[in-house]
Amino acid sequence: MLRLGVLLGLAMSVAVPVRAETPDPVTTFSLDNGMEVVVIEDHRAPAVVHMVWYKAGAADEQPGASGVAHFLEHLLFKGTDTLEPGEFSATVAANGGTDNAFTSYDQTAYFQRVAADRLGLMMQMEADRMLNIRLGPDDILTERDVIIEERNQRVENDPAALFREQTRAALYLNHPYGTPVIGWKHEMEALDLDDALSFYRTHYAPNNAVLVVAGDVTPEEVRRLAEEHYAPLPPNPALGERVRPQEPVQMAERRLSFRDPRVAQPYVIRSYLAPERDSGAQEKAAALTLLAEVLGGGQTSVMTQKLQFETQKAVYTSAFYSGVSLDDTSFGLVIVPAPGVTLEEAEAAMDATLAEFLETGVDPEQLERIKFQIRAQQIYGRDDAGSLARRYGRALTEGLTVEDVQAWPEILDAVTGEDIIAAAREVFDRDRSVTGYLMNTETAEVTQ
Amino acid sequence: MMMRLILSCALALTALTAQAEIDIQEVESPGGFKAWLVEEPSIPFVALELRFKGGGSLDLPGKRGATNLMVGLLEEGAGEMSARDFAAARESIAARIGYDLGDDSVRISATFLTETQDEAVELLRASLVEPRFDADAIERVRRQVLSSVRSDATDPNEIVSAAFDRMVFGDHPYGSSLDGTLESVAALSREDLVTAHRNAIAQDRVYVAAAGDISAEELGALMDRLLSDLPETGASMPERVEVETEAGVTVVPFETPQSVAIFGHEGLPRDHPDFFTAYVLNEMLGAGGFESRLMDEVREKRGLTYGVYSYLVPKDHAELYLGRVASANDRIAEAIEVIRAEWRKMAEEGATQEELEAAKTYLTGAYPLRFDGNRPIARILVGMQMDDLSPDYVTTRNAQIEAVTLEDVKRVAGELLKPDALHFVVVGQPEGLESTLGQ
């Protein structure tokens, strides 16, 4: 396989590794103010990853203020009552560490990687900016320019990214997952201090946060430091349930064509609305996770074999599903047609492959190989404490529990070929789907 | 089987006050292959890194892209196995093998479980020693490469790299994409791939590192099995190329809202006595942290970009000092003006003691944190060998950073930073910028 995943800008969503869990030394507890704590021990290197995850992301924004969750994430580096703008990162760097943050639909996370004995200092600063940021009008304007340049870089300069935004907006009729995390450009340009502070005061509080520490630490040490730095923070008593507008019954297939002169390689993406992993009920999501592997996970997968090896209708195919989501997620299929194959022909070939797969069922040998890889992942995964930290932090801000995360490998292992086919039949409903064609301005509908 | 352990040195990495030990063994196999090893038996798997020096720059004249297509085909059928058989075998033992190509090396990264180590080594060996280059696989992978080449032609990030490389390196292999062109890739024959394989994958250019659940004896046997049947010698290395640039701008018109720029001039070889000083200098100028001057001036103070970076590029046959920035078409001219001014200011005045101390604490503190898993350790170890460093580098490296003085920085800034050679290649529709003459 060559670098087409990256080429299509799908690397993050296509390469859905089969996530599996280990019987790791994971310890959890809560502070009296409601802050949850997860400790993952790995004593091989004298380092820790310190992460604070907020159960608030782009899907929690007020209508009309898209991008404010991400904007606020940038502004949290701008100073507090006791830290000058930029001093947070400068202090981390002066201690030999690195720091960053990211925003998704369902969470915002801040993290530092430092020597283990600097953990207390990280907690002190992170606790400070949970409640005490101080922002001036200049910070707002300059940083708004920065996020607009970020959007330019990630989206406006990349027709595939624009296409994904349009596809997503069509998939979700009512849920805020249809709005891009970085925000619609016209709304980003109008974001102001009040928008940012309103989001901050509503969502940033210890009872809406999860602390994850991974690395060369003991749970006792983390508890002692967390009691010192985070426990004194007052919870927000007004914190409400995370309720977003949900999808209505979807009754009509959506199709869209996106044309841009910068498109050199046209392709087809189909996205179906799909259920997510729910606490205590992850079986269907497990079947869909394996379905994505069976269809598109590597060289022996169904789509690759049929469409790239046998019929040679495609230069690249993929299937992707990420079950970790608070609300309805999506199951996606991609086909990049071979030269001389139109997008219609490619789509038809893909649908024929799916239909044949539903009739034939899952190859038991392929399923066994996939399951062995899942078991191996539990071993490989122990090499990367930071990755484990992200897995727990993400799950715990998506409505899952530590128990759900730890049960996941076994649930995956128990999935049968019949389960996979049943999940496929349920999800592959065109009335709950969007089919998008990405095309060059010159691409004719019927010939490519 | 006798194993010769040349040296085993235990190194204490000091992360401020925290401690971790990394014990690098130099291993030589009965067959004479050398490797560096960190034994770490607590997780039952092995991370193995192989590098073959030469890489994409070994393409023969008129055969641009041959090495790339060859590397793409290593996992597409080998020995008795078809592409599908090979993939199924690899999946059935949950081994991961990545084949990748750079300008100066073929990079192979493998991770495999201790329990399936022998099978993994057989697969890896087959792909290196007996790739089949079946006709159907060649066509399949060729189509993927061509698709990638077509896409790169309308991707501003790729266009800007290609334009800068062409300007600086011309007809040298560094001057064009190692993927090849639509024409050159279309014309490659099976024989070209066999030649590329023989030229690039040979014993005289291999570097090996491993970390994880494997002993020195086992690693020795593994190397002999893996490498003994490869040709002893490959193709000769490409020639050195001197970098010459002029201050100025080259605009490559492309309809897109944000202009993307690469800027730079001649750099410094990895083994130059001033390399450490240059590395520390770059940390202060533009390595990308929010503390660097470029990030502070262009992003933090003016909001002109999401990211601006500079970096030393010591290739095997040329050296560059490069930077990157992207700004909206109506703001890129200002970003470039600020970068030019900072480049000149640092060249003329050097840095402050405060900046130097901050850079040193960051660099020395961050270094031990890199060794945080078998996979990163194996990658670091193979890279050190390719840079001709000794195992005790991991203990001396921070002292070398600490030894850099403000006077060193000022002198090297004056020599390394060349405002009068700093050239910008800009892809987009930049307002207020036009190509200067000469380049």
UniProtKB/TrEMBL annotation, chain A:
Residues 1-20 form the signal peptide. Residues 37-182 form the Peptidase M16 N-terminal domain. Its cofactor is Zn(2+). Residues 191-373 form the Peptidase M16 C-terminal domain. PROSITE patterns: INSULINASE. One of its GO terms (molecular function) is metal ion binding. The keyword Protease applies. Keywords: Hydrolase, Metalloprotease, Protease, Signal. One of its GO terms (biological process) is proteolysis. InterPro entries: Metalloenz_LuxS/M16, MPP/UQCRC_Complex, Pept_M16_N, Pept_M16_Zn_BS, Peptidase_M16_C. Belongs to the peptidase M16 family. This is Zinc protease. It comes from Pseudoponticoccus marisrubri. The lineage of its organism: Bacteria, Pseudomonadati, Pseudomonadota, Alphaproteobacteria, Rhodobacterales.
